[in-house]
Every structure is written in structure tokens, then in C-alpha cells.
Amino acid sequence: MVTPTNIDDWIKNNLFHVIPMAIAVINQNFEIVFANKTFEKMFGRWEKKKCHVVYKNKDVHCVDCKGVKVFKDGVARVSEELGYNKQDRITHYLQHTIPVIDENGDIPFLVEMSLDITETAQIRKEYQLLFDQVPCSILLIDRNFRIVKTNQKVENTFGNIIGQNCYVALKGYDTECQECTSGQTFRDGKMHSGNHVWKTRSGKRREFLVSTVPLRHEDGHFDLVMEVAIDISQTLKLEDDLKIANSFMESLIATSIDGIIAVDMGEEVTIFNQAARKIFQIEDHEKITKEKLASMLPKNFLAQVSAGLGHVYLPETEVITMEGGKIPVRLAGVQIQIKGKQSGMAISIQNLSEIRRLEHEKLEAERLAAVGQTVAGLAHGVKNLITGLEGGMYMLNSGIEKGKTDRIGQGMEMLNRNIHRVSTFVQEFLSFSKGRKIKAENCDPVQTADEVVTMYSAKANESGIKLLHEYDSYIAPACIDSESMHECLTNLVGNAIDACRMSDNKNGKNVLLKTFEKDNAIIYEVIDDGCGMDYEIKNRVFTNFFTTKGLGGTGLGLLITRKIIQEHGGKIELESEPGKGTTFRITLPRNRLPVPTCTEES
Amino acid sequence: MSNKKKILVVDDEQDVLIYLTALFQDNGYEVITAKDGVEGFDLAKKEKPDLITLDITMPDQSGVRTYRYYKGNDELKEIPVIIITAIGDSMRSFLKKLSGFPEPEGFMNKPIDEKTLLKMVSDLLGKS
Questions:
Q1: What are the chain B neighbours of A407 within 8 Å (beta carbons)?
Q2: With bands split at pLDDT 50, 70 and 90, how would you rate the model's confidence at A339?
């Protein structure tokens, strides 16, 4: 037990051993003559051993022995040493070598006090490694803007620039920079950062983001500033590229003729461009919710796009505007995926109203042109009728003058016949020019054709003509005015039968009606091997009140047929060769067919 | 043979045949008729008429082709032809452009003006 009275004894006997430093006393033969417990713990057994054996496991003197020097000049020394501890591990220690000087001034002993700094040295090494290897440039700058220290990264990039002024070494200036980040820190002691363009030793200009911090002493004052610089040239370039790409995309979206909409995975509509606003008739400032958007688009459209169907394309559909109106559009929706994960949807909308209007105008123009031709043809028809009437009048008048009763009767007959023709003509012409509104609905194109063939089979049979209907096994229903189409096919099949009957050789004649679909168009072909038509007739069949059937025809059948086909957005063509036969072909592209008259959404 | 001039009327309309037959007969001509171009061609070769009136829109052979037959035939090409048609002046200019064939001697639009037609006929027959 240590008390104040025996503390002196304790210091004499115990302190030496518990002091946390390894202490050894060495004689002039470099033998350890005395050592404390701490020394023994660190280096192991020491009695009668030479110091170099104990410290360094070496049998010979150290090359740079501090003991030799201290024995010689009596000046104490401090040195960092590497040796081996008692477990034979390398030990880093700080050694104070102090001479013990007697009254004669001789130095019989040295006291060596060693502090284990293995750990500290390790930490220091790690820091140096960190300092050199961090992926940024680090410089220490003094108040004269001289570079005091740099890390390896700086040396690699700029060469050895220690000792130079930073503005010279990094920028090639003669004087300090106008906006000096280190200067700011020197002035106010705070951390600062700024962008600087530095020239590398290969002459390249790179943009750096520089942060400066004061390296303070314990008392708070500082003479050095640490600059940490990161090369952001690549980042800035990417940023610029991104900005350009972004603004390009933004202006593209803003000025797009088609509506462009984007939604995220939540409830947000993130893009709704001007064209989309125009289509949906939404005010500029008004915000659109996803729910509202879904209600304006075709039912389940968003759900379909979202359901992972990828690209959903509706070439012809309708959207509903804010005012509740319907607009014909073409819709495309696509999932936006980032790294395989769905992050939203983009929708593109093309307004088809204008195209539809032009199509309608074109059909109307075609109809008017047909009417115009018809009117021109009407003159021809009327002239023939007048000739007939005049003939009747002549017969009547001259019969009365000459008192020829049979001529009077003939004249009356001619007048009656031609008056009857006038009324038939007028009726048919009226029905043609009035433009009966077609009543389109989904129906089977084959069935319509089949009805016509059935209707004519008796008549064909009577004339010894083989009438057949050939058709594709399945044609999807199409939106057609079946009654009008029936009339067209009746005209064409009737003409074909007449052509066979007018043929020189009336035996074994054929009329074939073919119904099929090709390139998304429904096609009817009426093929006969009858008398055929020569060039002049072919050129006139659609243009006038043209008939080759004398009093049997009004010359309106093919005109009406063409008009109906045009109203279905289709076309009619003919191929014919005198003596060989005629083929009429009706082509009805599905995408031009009328919309159902009674709006039944299927 | 009578010394009456003989006119061949070719028209597909029975009413026109009756009318023109009566008109020409009443004015002292002999009239023969055909209801289409082929029949008319055969008849013309057989009967050698002094004048032919020809309707231009007819079945089997169009009037234009019939006209070319007539004018391309050595026996018939000297016979004057009056085209009677309701098609109008476009046919007249079309016929004028036909290469290798002379223009028709007369051209008459329907409806027929009796006086003009009779004058045209008498002028053409007076010449021959």
C-alpha cells in the first residue's frame, strides 16, 4: 500500500517498472545492464545480451548506430527505429538515446527510452496512401500562393510543381488569379469552392471544381490551405450534351404536329404538349389528371399499354374532347422502361379530322364530277328523246296534212313511247343526282354477291349462260351498304349476261362473279366471255347516258354503280376486248369504307 | 330503176328510222334503212345508195368504226355521208382528226333541224 510517507520509496522501486516506455541502460560494450518491466514486455529477455541482439535480432552492430554517436559527443538523440518485438514481429519505435554523464564528464552508460509507434506509423502510412491515391488532386498552398505539397494525382497530371506559384503552375498566369478560391479562404478562414480551368502538363485544358479548406493549428491560426480539385470536364460536357438533347426534345415535343403525352407510374401526367391540348380542346393553364386522360382516350387504352403489351397501335379510333366531342385519331402508346423497369408511358396522337375532311371533300368532288359528266350526258339523252318526239310530231303532222291515218297512228305511238322514255329518264336521273345517303353496316360481302347470283341464275339458265359465284371461304364482315352493293352487282351481272347474249357465238357462254379479299381490300370481279367492247365504247361507258341496248337501257346503270362504289371509297375498273369478253372489278379498301350509319360500338 | 335519188338511213333507234324515212320520202327520195353499221355496210354495197346518213352511237360497231369502214371501201368511199349524232361537236372534231380518212361530207346534230338537213341532202346530191 502506497502512502504519502513511502511515495519516495515507491518512486524509487516501482515507477521505473510501470512507466509506459521501454527503458534500458547500456554500457560501453553495448550490453544491456538494466531494463524495466515495460522493456521486457516489449522486447523479451535482455540480461547479458547486446542491445542490437535484443532490439533487432542482429549479431553485428547497426550501421547507423545512434549509441556510438551519443557515447562520442554526449548529445542526446531521437530516432525512429525498426526492430523486432519478443514475438519477432516488426516493431516501429521512437527511441530517445540519452547519455549518463559522471562527475568526470565520462559517459559510462546510455539510457535508451523506446516508445512503440508501430500503430501510429501504420496510420500515417495509410493516410499517405489515401492522400496520394484519392481520385482527386490535392495541393497545399501557403500564403504566398506557393505550392508546398501535392499528392501523387497532381504529380501525374501536372508534373512536379512543388515550390511554384499555383497561378503559374496551374494556369500559366504571371499574377494571382482574379477570383482566387484559396485567397478567399486565407482571407476569411472559411471553406470555399469555385470552378477553374487548369492546364495539364500535356497542354490540355480541363475544368476543375476546387474546394479550399484552412489547415488550422491547435490554436486556430493557419498558414496553409488545402485545395481539393475534381476534374469535372467530362461531367460538364455530359451536362451540356444533356441540356442540348433535352432542349431539342422539348422543342420537338412543343412544336410537334402530333399530340404527345407522357404519364408516370403514379397519377401524374408529365407531358401534355400543345398539339395534344388542341386535339382535346384543353386550355393552356388547365392541369390534366391521369384519370381525366383515361376517360378521354379509348376505353382501357392506358391499361393495355401499361399491361406490358409494349407497343399499342390503333390506326383509327376516336378520342373524346373536353367538350365531349369525338375526334378521329390515330393512337400509339408505348411503355417507357428504364433498365428493364417500367417507369411510365408515352402516347402519340395524330389528329385525323383534317385527313378525313379532305377524303370527304375528295369523294364529294368525285361525286360532283360524276354529276357534271352526267349532266353533259343528259344533253345527249335529251337530244335523242327530242329527236324521237320530233319524229312523232312530223309523222302526226304530215299524216294529218296528207290524210294518212296509219301515219297519224304511227306518230301517236312514237310520241307516247318517247314521252314514256322521258319520264323513266327523269326518274332515274333524279334518283342518281339526289345522292341517296348510303346506309352502311357490318355485313358479309360474300352473302350480298351470292344473292345477286341466285337472282340471275334463272335468267342465265334461260339464255344458256353458265353463271357461277367463286369466293374466299372467309371474309371478315365489312361496313357496306348491302342494298346499294346489291344494285351495283345486279347492274354488272346483268350487263355481263346481256354481253353474252349479244355475242355472235351464243353457245357455252360464262359469267363468273368472284368475291375475295386482297391487300386489305374487298374485291368483286364480274367476268364474262361475251361480246366485249371496243375502244370507243370502253371510253364512254362511265361518262354518259350511254347505252348500246337501244331502247332497252337508259345508260345510267354503270353511272349509278360507279357512284355507289365511290361513296364506299372504292373504285371500279374494266378490262375488255371485243369478241373476248369483259371484266369489271370493284375494289373496296377496308380503310376507306364508310363508318356504320347506326352507331353501334362493337 | 326509178330516177329518184336513194338514201340509206343507218340508225339503231326505230323511231329515228321511221321519222327520217317519212321525211325523206315526203321530199321525193327513195329510202332504205339499216338498224346497225354492219347491216348498213352490206346494204350499201348491195344497193349503192346516193347518200348515207349515219348515227354515231350504235351497238356492235360504233358509228366511228362504221364510218371508217365505209370510207375505207373502194366501192363505197365516194358516197357522201352525213353523220347524225346527239353526241355533239366533240365527235365532229374527233372525226376531223382521224388520219387517212376524209371528213364526213355532212354533219348534223340531234335534234334534227328538218330544213337544214333537207338542204344539206339536196346540196350533196346536186353535186354528184
A1: 22
A2: confident
Decide: pTM greater than 0.80.
no
The one-letter code for the residue type at A426 is: V
Q: Are strands A77-84 and A90-100 parallel, antiparallel or unpaired?
A: antiparallel
Cβ neighbours of residue A480 closer than 8 Å, sequence gap 6 or more: A440, A441, A443, A445, A448, A522, A568, A588, A593
CB contact under 8 A, A384 and B86: yes
Closest Cα of chain B to A423: distance in Å? 17
Contacts of A546 in chain B (CB under 8 A): 57
| Residue A8 half-sphere exposure toward CB, CA atoms < 13 A | 1
Q: Which domains does chain B have, with CATH numbers?
A: 6-120 (3.40.50.2300)
Q: CA-CA distance, A145 to A177, in Å (whole number)?
A: 10
ipTM over 0.90: no
Query: Residue by residue, what is the 3-state secondary structure of A49-67?
Result: CEHHHHHHCCCCCCCCCHH
User: Once rounded to an integer, what is the mean pLDDT over residues A484-496?
Assistant: 89
CB contact under 8 A, A390 and B22: no
- Bridge-based pairing of strands A441-443 and A465-471 is unpaired
The partner residue sitting opposite A534, judged by closest CB among B15, B62, B86, is B62
Taking only the tens place, the pLDDT of each residue in A517-544 is: 999 999 999 999 988 887 767 666 775 5
- For chains A and B, CB pairs below 8 A equal 75
Alpha helices in A463-590 (DSSP H): 482-501, 535-540, 557-567
